[in-house]
From TrEMBL:
Classification of source organism: Bacteria, Pseudomonadati, Pseudomonadota, Gammaproteobacteria, Lysobacterales
Protein's UniProt keywords contain ATP-binding: yes
Keyword Acetylation: no
Name of this protein: Osmoprotectant transport system ATP-binding protein
Organism, as annotated: Dokdonella immobilis
Residue ranges of every copy of the ABC transporter domain listed in the record: 15-248
Pfam families assigned: ABC_tran
Length: 258
């Protein structure tokens, strides 16, 4: 923990946003947002629907641009001219994996590496290594996305995002479409993966328990603003606003009568 704080103090955040704002028509205004994410940290963006969580991910990835303020990645401002090389250094996973349906999974995960001139042998070797790490049966790579289960598709999406060994991973509701048992298993595997790979991870989830399980820092948003940042314990013990505690504890736990 102390090294992370030191990194941030010296301005070496992996991602940062300074006074970033973004407006979509008259209905939604994000920011101004200030955010600094330390290398190798895992951050979960949480908050009600429409709070601006996915917008933050898109701004970090350069899929969208702020109206004002600056987004930096790995020490440099995000610039349209460098976008392709920047995107190769940030893995991005969306719900259901975002795979191309007309390509088999091996082709999906190897697409970018192939355009970068990797040899077929190197692509196969890397795909197999990642399949093992992500607990995907290697023969699943030969199938089309529609022939896999939701959990397997999500693993393929993760393998694709990790293919070029990027220092950062952005995950937008990666487990949102999965049934509870598969989701539970994948949460545990992802936590293990994040701990061993040392990537800077930013994920969006609607599930507060999942956020607390996977991330060392939660960023709670509402109406385009960051309401509070900290550990789940910080948010529960010292809520910055009356809204924080009910939001954190809103999810139902199972109660059955005898
Ligand atoms: N390209 C766009 N054009 C217009 N409005 C947009 C665009 N992208 C997002 N918005 C609006 O910005 C607001 C924030 O959207 P965003 O997807 O970031 O929220 P979110 O917190 O991720 O929500 P959810 O949890 O429902 O996915 C919403 O009101 C949305 O309708």
């Amino acid at each position: 923990m102390p090294p992370r704080i030191a990194w941030l103090r010296y301005g070496a955040a992996m991602f940062s946003m300074t006074a970033v704002s973004k407006r979509y028509g008259p209905g939604f205004a994000l920011g101004p947002i200030d955010l600094a994410l330390a290398p190798a940290s895992t951050t979960a963006l949480i908050g009600p629907s429409g709070a601006g969580k996915s917008t933050i991910l898109r701004l970090l990835l350069g899929l969208d641009w702020p109206d004002a303020g600056e987004v930096r990645f790995d020490g440099a401002p995000l610039r349209r001219a460098d976008l392709l090389s920047t995107r190769r250094r940030i893995g991005y996973v969306i719900q259901e994996g975002g795979l191309f349906p007309h390509l088999n999974c091996a082709a999906n995960v190897g697409l970018l590496a192939r355009t970068l001139g990797w040899s077929p042998a190197r692509i196969t070797e890397r795909s197999r290594e990642l399949a093992e790490r992500c607990q995907l049966p290697v023969d699943a790579l030969a199938r089309y996305p529609a022939e896999l289960s939701g959990g397997q598709r999500q693993r393929v999406g993760l393998i694709r995002a990790l293919m070029l060994d990027p220092p950062a991973l952005l995950l937008d509701e990666p487990l949102g479409a999965l049934d509870p048992i598969v989701r539970h298993d994948l949460q545990a595997q992802m936590r293990e993966l994040f701990a061993t790979l040392g990537k800077t991870v930013v994920l969006v989830t609607h599930d507060v328990a999942e956020a607390a399980f996977l991330a060392d820092r939660l960023v709670l948003m509402r109406d385009g603003a960051i309401i509070q940042q900290g550990s789940a314990r910080d948010l529960l013990d010292a809520p910055a606003e009356p809204f924080v505690r009910p939001f954190m504890t809103a999810q139902r736990s199972l109660k059955v009568s005898a």
